Amino acid sequence: MQTGSGDQAARRPHTGRRRNEAARRAILDVVVDLIGRDDDAPVTIDTIAAAAGVGKQTIYRWWPSKGAVLLEAMTERADLDIPPSDTGTLAGDLEAFLRATFRLAGQATMARLLRKVMVEAQLDPQMGEATRSFLARRRSALRGLFERAAERGETAPGTDPDLLVDQAFGVLWYRILVGHAPLTEASAAELAGALTAQAVRRAPGEPG
Amino acid sequence: MQTGSGDQAARRPHTGRRRNEAARRAILDVVVDLIGRDDDAPVTIDTIAAAAGVGKQTIYRWWPSKGAVLLEAMTERADLDIPPSDTGTLAGDLEAFLRATFRLAGQATMARLLRKVMVEAQLDPQMGEATRSFLARRRSALRGLFERAAERGETAPGTDPDLLVDQAFGVLWYRILVGHAPLTEASAAELAGALTAQAVRRAPGEPG
DNA sequence: TACTTGACGAGACTCTTAGTCTCGGCAATG
DNA sequence: CATTGCCGAGACTAAGAGTCTCGTCAAGTA
């Protein structure tokens, strides 16, 4: 996500003052902290910079836009809190994966962060690309579970892993963005069961 | 969606000049037209007013926000182009419903309109409520198909219609917002088959 | 016909916020 | 100890949503 003069390191040895790592951490942490607050305090570049004790230019030196900061804060946590699952069965893998995913995304702070990132992704094409890339990694992780199950011969032939993946993340994002129903671990487990059933069997009369 | 002095009509007979219906239509049509253009012309209140040959105040007299105009333009078309389906079977109803829905939402202009509405819904709580209310109507229409099937005894006991509905609309919105895969009628049909399979049977070992 | 009411187009105005630019200062390298 | 480049601070620009006001126009009422 970093831009700025980072690529000059390839051309010649670095001189001058180095990046302040404490400032980087403060910025990312403050973003999550501000978003997590109950008062709907506006999360603007100015409030982030002020709360992090940092100049605005320090933010723009390392990130191309406000959305990019939000995305990195989000990515950091998502990559952390969702461990790969390998229980040996599709049902087990799927339930573990979706439980962890829904647990994280169901937290109020994380949900708000996800919403903001998705908004920025719609507003700025560069952010759209970056977000798409992050989400592609998440989809790939989930698709892996179905593909392993297919290799084991667990799933019916003709099963479309991409559709199954979109059904899972679709429920997640739809609920986060619309807010008509909560993301609970119970619903994650129920969804896991439904998708397992879908992958393992076919509708009556359908080939395969 | 209208506000302004509309509620005064209840208190006393209307006097003075009436609302210009041609202006209303021009505004809603111009919104769709501007959004549909290939050049990513910004769809701002000023450009809408100018293109519709209307003063900004005329917009704000009848809609509370820009998002509300977008939402009404979207609602108008959605309520129109998705007929209720009643083929007698869940598979048939579901496929007809999802085909019509994906066909409409898959059009470039409509997809962009949906994206913008969803963004506004995230940015403004009042818009969030209005959007939620529209989406609730759409969910209710789809849920009706599953409930009718349940009355016919077509679905397995323990089937959760709300989860099925969220899977369907989840795929739609997820694909629209992320843009990694198109909304085709073929995928609508495939999804309809998958959800039918899910509702009709249960995973092995699960009760019901 | 004359009066009243409220919508109309036009456009100036305020406010918020993202992002840029410039400053004097400071830390790492050589 | 000179150069380089990051630092915090804050002024500045630009875009866009929403408000306010003005003179005008149309639909009823007397």
UniProtKB/TrEMBL annotation, chains A, B:
Pfam families: TetR_C_11 (PF16859), TetR_N (PF00440)
Highest taxon of source: Bacteria
Record bears the keyword Iron-sulfur: no
Region feature Disordered, mapped onto this chain: 1-21
Keywords recorded for this protein, A-Z: DNA-binding, Transcription, Transcription regulation
Record-annotated DNA-binding residue ranges: 44-63
Entry annotated with the keyword rRNA processing: no
The HTH tetR-type domain, residue ranges: 21-81
Protein name as annotated: TetR family transcriptional regulator
Organism name: Streptosporangium pseudovulgare
